[in-house]
C-alpha cells in the first residue's frame, strides 16, 4: 500500500520506505519489492518489515515469483526493538525467501545500491542475483564497522563490490553495467522460469457488466447507516451482470450466489442487513459448498454485526454465527474481501476480515472497520458515564472520529 506508515514516524518514512506490487515481467505475473533508498537509506522501519512480509505472503499464496530490487542499509537501528527480535520481524523476510524457494517459487534479486547487514541476505538467499558494477555493494559489515572491529581500512567497492562478488565470492550470478542492464537481466531470468501453475478452475470469456460500474458511487451511500440493496452492487461487478442467487428466499439479510468476475468463477457472500441465525446458517452452507467445488469466494462486507436480544440469544445465534465463522476459517479456496460499507464486531469475522486470511482485502473510501459502530459505541460510553451525559453530543463526537 502506498499509504503504509502514513502519519507515522513523524512523516520520515513515506510509503514505509519500500515499494511493493504485482506486475508482469516477461509476460509472467511477479511480486516486486523495491527498497526506496531516498527514505533513510532504504532502512527497515517496523512498517517496512510488515509491508515486505505482506508482499511475500501474496507471493506465497498465489505462487508468484519474487523480484527484489535491493538498495537497503538493513534495519533502522533506533527502532530495532520493533524490527529485530520477534517472529514477524526482520528475520522472517529471509525465512520466507528460503521456504518459498524450497517450494519452487523463484526468488530473484537485483542489487542496485548498498546492501548492508541484514539487507545483504536478500541477494545472498536469492535463487539468482544481479549486481550493478561500481554501484552495488553487498557486505555484512561496512567499511566503518570493519575498521572498528579489525582495524582494516578498505573501500566499499573492495569490500563488497560487483566485481568481487561476481568473480571471487560467487555471491552474485550476473554483473550488470548499470540499472537498466540489471533490469534487462532480471527480465531474461524470469523468461527462463518454468510454466505457470495451472488454475484449478475453468475460466470463461470475459464480459463487461451490463449495468454500468460507474454508477457504483450513486448506489452505495456515503452514510453507512443508509440501507441499500447489495444486489445493485453485485450487478455492477460481475460479468454480464449475471448472478445465480443461492437460497434467495431464506436468510435474506445475507445474499449468496454464483457469478463470474473477469472470467473467473466466484461465490459471492454479500451483506444485505444485520445477520440473523438463518443468515449465518445460509452463509456457512454456501461457503462449504464453494469450498467443495473449488470456487473462489468474494465477500462484500457491509455489516453491523449479529442480531442481539433475548429472543435471538435463546435461538442460539451465538452458535449459528460460530458455524459461519468456522466455515470462513476452514475454507481452502482463495478468499477475497471488499469492505463496501461498515464492518463491525463479530460481523467482520464472519465476513472474512483480515484475521481470516483473505488473499486480498480492499476498502472503499466510505468503509469503516471497528469493534462497534459509532452510534453503539457512544451509547455504551454514555451508559457507563455519569448520569446527565449528553448522549446525542457523544454520538456526534464518536461518529466524527
Description:
The chain contains 15 helices and 14 strands. The two termini are 23 Å apart. The model has no long low-confidence stretch (mean pLDDT 93). It is an alpha/beta fold and 401 residues long. The chain has helices at 46-62, 91-102, 121-124, 143-150, 156-160, 162-169, 179-191, 216-219, 231-234, 277-293, 310-314, 317-330, 346-350, 374-384, 391-400; strands at 18-25, 28-35, 66-72, 107-116, 128-132, 137-139, 174-176, 244-246, 254-261, 264-271, 297-303, 335-344, 360-363, 368-370. It has two domains: 9-191, 2-enoyl-CoA Hydratase, Chain A, domain 1 (Alpha-Beta Complex); 213-370, Alpha-Beta Complex (2-enoyl-CoA Hydratase, Chain A, domain 1), CATH 3.90.226.10. The radius of gyration is 25 Å and the shape is globular. Strands 1, 2, 3, 4, 5, 6 and 7 form a seven-stranded mixed beta sheet that branches. Strands 8, 9, 10, 11, 12, 13 and 14 form a seven-stranded mixed beta sheet that branches. 34% of the residues lie in helices and 22% in strands. It comes from uncultured Solirubrobacteraceae bacterium. This is Methylcrotonyl-CoA carboxylase carboxyl transferase subunit. Residues 1-205 form the CoA carboxyltransferase N-terminal domain.
Q: Keywords, please?
A:
2-enoyl-CoA Hydratase, Chain A, domain 1; 2 domains; 14 strands; MCCB/AccD1-like; 7-stranded mixed β-sheet; alpha/beta; 401 residues; single chain; globular; 15 helices; Methylcrotonyl-CoA carboxylase carboxyl transferase subunit
